[in-house]
Design a protein that fits this description.
It contains 6 helices and 7 strands; from the N terminus they run H-E-H-E-E-H-H-E-E-H-E-E-H. A 4-stranded antiparallel beta sheet has the order 4-5-7-6, with helices on one face. A 3-stranded antiparallel beta sheet has the order 1-3-2, covered by helices on one side. It is α+β, with helices and mostly antiparallel strands. Helix 1 packs across helix 3, helix 1 runs parallel beside helix 4 and helix 4 packs across helix 6.
């Protein structure tokens, strides 16, 4: 007995890719994604780091300005977030700013960050397309500045007399920073460190250009 042929209606249809983010939304989502990738996973989420680059909706910073910047960006993305401050230490006091997205909003948070990272990374690493639009020529350096702003706020600073460096555990983000520096007309070096990557720019005019580009307008 011959089996009945499978009709086209029975075949699963591939899901269509989501539409690209507009430039303003992309810049905000990309910056948040870079900030989160700068931070180590919260202690309770270490084992989930490889499968969840956005830490289950939780990010921890030891600088208030980093936490406030992420809150500002998430507000513009319509993602609510709770901010918890804890202090510790005996001789050396420290602050830990823990930002957590409510459970019901975490799927939307992860989706917009994933889209922002994917699209922003492609814009910076893919190189300028022939006949690129005016908007793309304007926004690619802005995305580069957003990545460096995130790294300067949330990354591990490595300051020496001859350079300003950022320690990162994320190889892709390190590559984005190097390419972003080139777009901002700044030479950047990448070298592996002890369990991390170090991206550095020379002191002087190059460091000044990076920091000025990353300042909030």
């Amino acid at each position: 007995m011959l089996s009945e042929p499978t009709t086209l209606l029975d075949r699963p249809r591939p899901s269509s890719p989501p539409p690209p983010l507009d430039w303003l939304t992309l810049a905000d989502a990309f910056e948040v994604a870079c900030m989160v990738r700068c931070t180590p996973p919260p202690a309770a989420d270490v084992r989930r780091f490889d499968v969840d680059p956005y830490r289950g909706g939780v990010a921890e910073f030891n600088r208030e300005d980093a936490a406030q910047r992420m809150r500002q960006l998430l507000g513009r993305l319509d993602v609510p977030v709770e901010h918890e401050l804890t202090t510790g230490g005996l001789r050396r006091r420290f602050e830990l700013h823990r930002l957590s997205v409510p459970v019901e909003h975490r799927p939307a948070y992860a989706a917009v960050l994933a889209a922002g990272w994917r699209q922003g990374r492609r814009e910076l690493l893919g190189g300028p397309a022939p006949g690129a639009s005016t908007a793309r020529r304007i926004w690619r350096p802005r995305l580069a500045a957003a990545a460096w702003r995130a790294a300067l706020l949330a990354g591990g600073r490595h300051v020496r007399r001859h350079c300003l460096g950022i320690r990162l555990a994320d190889r892709d983000l390190a590559a984005v920073l190097v390419r972003g520096a080139a777009l901002l007309e700044v030479p950047a070096a990448l070298r592996p460190g002890s369990g991390c990557f170090l991206v550095s720019v020379p002191n002087g005019k190059h460091r000044a250009r990076i920091t000025e580009s990353a300042e909030l307008g």
